[in-house]
Specification:
With 184 residues, the chain is of the alpha+beta class. It has one domain: RlpA-like domain (Barwin-like endoglucanases), CATH 2.40.40. It is extended, with a radius of gyration of 24 Å.
């Protein structure tokens, strides 16, 4: 009987050790880097598109076309390099924003129930260093996911964050901030 008890304890210890070994790498191992972060929006000035297809007489004013670079003259879709639509981060119901503005909780629940869950913003980065899907936290902006690559975003210490309006992008300007990078 003691031998059976010993075997069951031995199996239990082995099982616990296996669980510890298997879950040891599951913790979020993040890195913090000081990066130069700029902002962009979807306007023609930031994204390089213009209305109309012909250079001299722009009759096709309802469509957007890429104005420079190797894809000049092709239709502008407004999608990121990964094929998603760019977006700003949304804090969701349970966030720091809910703590500072508690009166907005009821408004969010009643009028905007689809905004209960947080949504990450769009970040443009050099995909040689940060592949699509890499999650980051930029202080002053929030959480974002690498979904785009900018033409001027080269190297491991440069990011471009998306804003809906050109004014907000200009207000951000160019900042050096400590960005938290979460592996994919």
């Amino acid at each position: 009987m003691s031998e059976k008890k010993f075997q069951s304890v031995y199996l239990l210890v082995l099982l616990m050790a296996a669980i510890v070994v298997m879950t040891a790498g599951c913790g979020s191992k993040y890195r913090v880097k000081t990066m130069e972060v700029t902002a962009y929006c979807g306007c023609g000035q930031c994204c390089g598109w213009e209305r109309g297809s012909w250079k001299c007489l722009k009759l096709d004013v309802w469509n957007k076309y890429i104005s420079y670079g190797p894809r000049a003259g092709r239709p502008y879709t407004g999608l990121t390099a990964s094929g998603t639509k760019p977006r700003e981060p949304q804090p969701g119901l349970f966030s720091g924003d809910s703590l500072t503005h508690p009166w907005m909780i009821l408004v969010r629940i009643v009028f905007f129930p689809w905004l209960l869950l947080p949504e990450d913003g769009t970040i443009a980065a050099d995909t040689r260093y940060y592949p699509f899907g890499t999650r980051m936290f930029v202080p002053g902006y929030g959480y974002g996911v690498v979904e785009d690559r900018g033409s001027a975003i080269k190297g491991p210490r440069r990011l471009d964050i998306f804003y809906r309006s050109h004014t907000e992008a200009l207000q951000w300007g160019r900042k050096k901030v400590n960005v938290t990078i979460y592996p994919k």
